Amino acid sequence: MVQQITKGIKISVVTNFEGTFYKNYKIHFAFGYQVTIENQSKDYVQLNSREWIIYDALNKKEVITGEGVIGKKPVIKPGESHTYSSGCLLTSPFGAMRGFYNMVNFTTTKGFKVAIPKFNLSTPFAIN
Question: Domain named ApaG: which ranges (predicted)?
């Protein structure tokens, strides 16, 4: 598990390897991850959008942006958290992800970025 706190928002990420499959005559490696966003601040906050940077050992980096997370823009009260699961495909058994969430503080009405710490993606059979 990796964790990081930015402006009172704690991000925790747990990863797992889901398996391999072939698509268009290429092997793909499926990884899942679970993110917990914990509001340790004294203000209500809302997650509005995200940006992920995905690194694949065999390819250049890929940047993915979008609204909310898994179709939601959660409002997180002080002392509460929001957890969701998602995944990504790599064409190699190793990679990494990092990124940030764009959030709004309801008290100040100002937007701010929350860092998603870099986490590694690796297949258990490829690790020495």
Answer: 3-128
Phi and psi at 125, nearest 5°, equal -80, -10
Among candidate residues 11, 41, 35, the one with its CA nearest the CA of residue 83: 35
Domains and CATH numbers, the chain: 2-120 (2.60.40.1470)
With contact defined as beta carbons under 8 Å apart, do 33 and 14 qualify?
yes
Which neighbouring-strand residues pair with 51? 65, 100
Q: How far apart are CA 48 and CA 66, in angstroms?
A: 9
Report whether 47 contacts 101 (CB < 8 A): yes
| Residue of 50, 109, 113 whose CA lies nearest to 84 | 50
Contact 37, 11 (CB under 8 A): yes
Q: Tell whether the model's pLDDT for residue 49 goes beyond 60.
A: yes
Q: Using CA atoms, how far apart are residues 128 and 117, in angstroms rounded to an integer?
A: 24
Can you read off the two tokens belonging to residue 11?
């991000």
Q: What is the pLDDT of residues 55-114, one digit of tens each?
A: 998 878 999 999 999 999 999 999 999 999 999 999 999 999 999 999 999 999 999 999
